[in-house]
Specification:
Blueprint (H helix, E strand, L loop, with lengths): L5 H10 L7 E5 L12 E2 L9 E2 L3 E4 L9 E7 L13 E5 L11 E4 L3 E4 L2 E4 L9 E2 L10 E3 L7 H9 L4 E5 L3 E7 L3 E2 L11 E2 L2 H11 L3 E8 L3 H14 L2 E5 L10 H7 L3 E5 L3 E2 L5 E5 L2 E6 L3 H20 L6 E7 L10 E11 L2 E5 L19 E5 L11 E6 L4
Parallel strand pairs: 5-6, 13-16, 13-17, 14-15, 17-21, 19-23, 22-24
Antiparallel strand pairs: 1-12, 2-11, 3-10, 4-6, 4-7, 5-9, 8-9, 18-20, 20-21, 22-26, 23-24, 23-25, 25-26
Helix pairs in contact: 3-6, 4-5
Length: 403
């Protein structure tokens, strides 16, 4: 079987046209974790006027050499101050208050002594001290948050400051997940013989896709029966944007999925990629919907989901990338196991701003070892042309905490 290179398969995936224009408006309080469908642009300067950043006295800096400066009164936050400070005068001004006209400096309360309606300077401050200038935070027209950004606490705070009552967010793509195989047992089902395998793929992938911003339809498991798989797939495509199945794509007598997908009227974009794990992956498209048939082993299905499903979800959400890739240095020798592009679970350590990779407690074995992805793991990429890699070699690493 001729296999596509990993790079070609990714380029083809990137060229697939998806509908990324779908959006909905949500109240700001309900937008956490969603993806922005528009740029957030400042309509005005922040602050719009010079503002006190501490409690103190608004003064003319040249007056700090005077023996006493008369206090005109107080200027609490939120007060529309109209008085103008003249030489020899000051106004007590509080954090967040508009600086009175005429004043160019705020001297902190702890720097003065108050006596008989006047202040005397105990410790001078520089010109403009403790005064936020117009536009210090941002200026009118600045793009503060870009379209495609996942909304977190900081984005919520900035948008609240802009009085964004409603937020335009990308509509979540719907992803249906199904595990195939007569040997698969769903959660809670009693085993009848020791050769049966407890289902984990559908739960792992549902969590992965939901974490990436999708709405997930959990379809459980279906046995190795053509008609049952066909019906399940057809039902899934009626309500989902992406159908993800695990199992049934290899070359065994009961691997029906690879034959069923074309019967659904889906065009196979490619089947078979030169990667380890997951070389039997199948990617297909029917109208504006996609089918990704992945291998059945737990590690294989998870890795191929990261590499092929997450980018589709990201495109539908209008995001630039599905995950973050960094360059890291090997802290130990790496023995490559095939002539394919390999994705190996690893540990990443950051020292002095540089990434380092090691394989401590990572087991070498089949593509079924999902536990290799525990403990904040990452995926190290070794290309087709790579052989064994020596300590100190720079490699690319996919960070799994960046979805």
């Amino acid at each position: 079987m001729s296999l596509l290179s990993y790079e070609t398969s990714q380029n083809m995936l990137d060229l697939l046209e998806v509908n990324s224009a779908r959006h909905e408006n949500l109240p700001l309080s309900f937008s956490l974790g969603r993806v922005l469908a528009e740029d957030i642009v400042a309509e005005y300067n922040d602050p719009q006027f010079p503002t006190a950043s501490m409690d103190g006295y608004a003064v003319i800096h040249a007056d700090l050499d005077c023996d006493g400066i008369s206090i005109l009164g107080s200027n609490p936050a939120g007060h529309a101050e109209t008085r103008v400070v003249k030489s020899g005068e000051c106004i007590k001004t509080f954090t967040g208050s508009m600086m009175p006209k005429g004043a160019d400096t705020l001297i902190q309360i702890e720097n003065v002594t108050v006596n008989d309606g006047k202040i005397t300077i105990d410790e001078k401050v520089p010109l403009g001290s403790s005064v936020r200038p117009i536009g210090e935070g941002y200026k009118a027209g600045d793009v503060l948050i870009k379209k495609g950004t996942k909304i977190g606490f900081a984005q919520i705070g900035v948008m609240a400051g802009l009085n964004k009552v409603m937020v335009k967010v990308a509509l979540k793509p719907r992803v249906a997940v199904i595990s195939t195989g007569s040997e698969i047992l769903d959660l809670g089902v009693n085993s009848t013989n020791p050769s049966q395998i407890r289902s984990s793929n559908n739960y792992t992938l549902c969590a992965l896709f939901e974490q990436a911003g999708a709405d997930v339809i959990q379809l459980g498991t279906v046995g190795d029966d053509r008609d049952s798989i066909m019906k399940t797939f057809e039902n899934a495509l009626s309500c989902a944007d992406i159908l993800v199945s695990t199992g049934g794509v290899s070359v065994g007598d009961y691997d029906f999925v690879k034959d069923i997908v074309p019967r659904l009227g889906a065009e196979v974009i490619y089947k078979g990629v030169a990667i380890k794990p997951g070389k039997h992956i199948l990617v297909a498209q029917r109208a504006d919907k996609f089918v990704l048939a992945l291998p059945g082993f737990a590690y294989s299905s998870t890795v191929t989901s990261i590499l092929y499903v997450l980018p589709l979800i990201a495109k539908m959400l209008g995001r630039d990338s599905a995950y973050k890739t960094v360059e890291a240095k090997l802290s130990e020798e790496f023995n490559k196991r095939s002539k394919l592009t390999e994705f190996t679970a690893c540990n990443v350590v950051v020292e002095d701003g540089e990434y380092f990779v090691n394989f401590k407690n990572k087991k070498v074995g089949s593509s079924a070892i999902l536990t290799n992805l525990l403990d904040s793991s990452a995926l190290m990429v070794a290309g087709e042309e790579d052989g064994n890699l020596s300590e100190g070699t720079f490699v690319n690493v996919i960070l799994l905490d960046s979805f």
